[in-house]
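User: Teach me something about this protein's shape.
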Amino acid sequence: MGSRILFATGNQDKMKEIRMILADLGMEIVSMKEAGIDIDIVEDGSTFEENAMIKAKAVAELSPEDIVLADDSGLEIDHLNKEPGIYSARYAGVDTSYTIKNNMLLERLNGVPDEKRTARFVCAIAAAFPDGTVETVRGTIEGRIGYEIAGENGFGYDPIFYLPEYGCTTAELDPVKKNELSHRGNALRAMRPIIERKMG
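Assistant: First, the predicted structure itself:
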């Protein structure tokens, strides 16, 4: 079986999180860029899981020796019918900065009371193994949409995702704490035993 994990992303922030969480697997973890893979993948699935599987399978075809992991994640806001959902990265345009995206969402929730601002981050991770099998897991973290942008530690929608029990946004959390709680952390921890079993 593959001795390294190839994570289908070019996002350095994600790579940092992944390396921290999977560090003790004792496997090399590389990004698509580091593996020299540059392909455009059309994510046309209707769920986070489908999109993650599309990505993992596409990259696995080019790197069949590796265990290929791909994630699809996003923010679901209950009041907005679970928008932006699977379109989180493309919400308000792909090249729009997250400051603009975050401000737009805050605006759309203007006047909406606390109890109706419930939201969650969802992360589905698919693993394509050298034996041709694909497994998916899902991790979530529940919270609310805050009233302002706060925090420097996160990326994406982290600065508006408020955790009432911690009294701060996920962008204000210490990175180690964030990995403990995050949707991606939860999904990666669910994927670990599957990888270990396959490696076994």
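Now, about its shape. The longest helix spans residues 183-199. The mean pLDDT is 94. If you'd like, I can walk through any region in more detail.
User: That's plenty for now, thanks!
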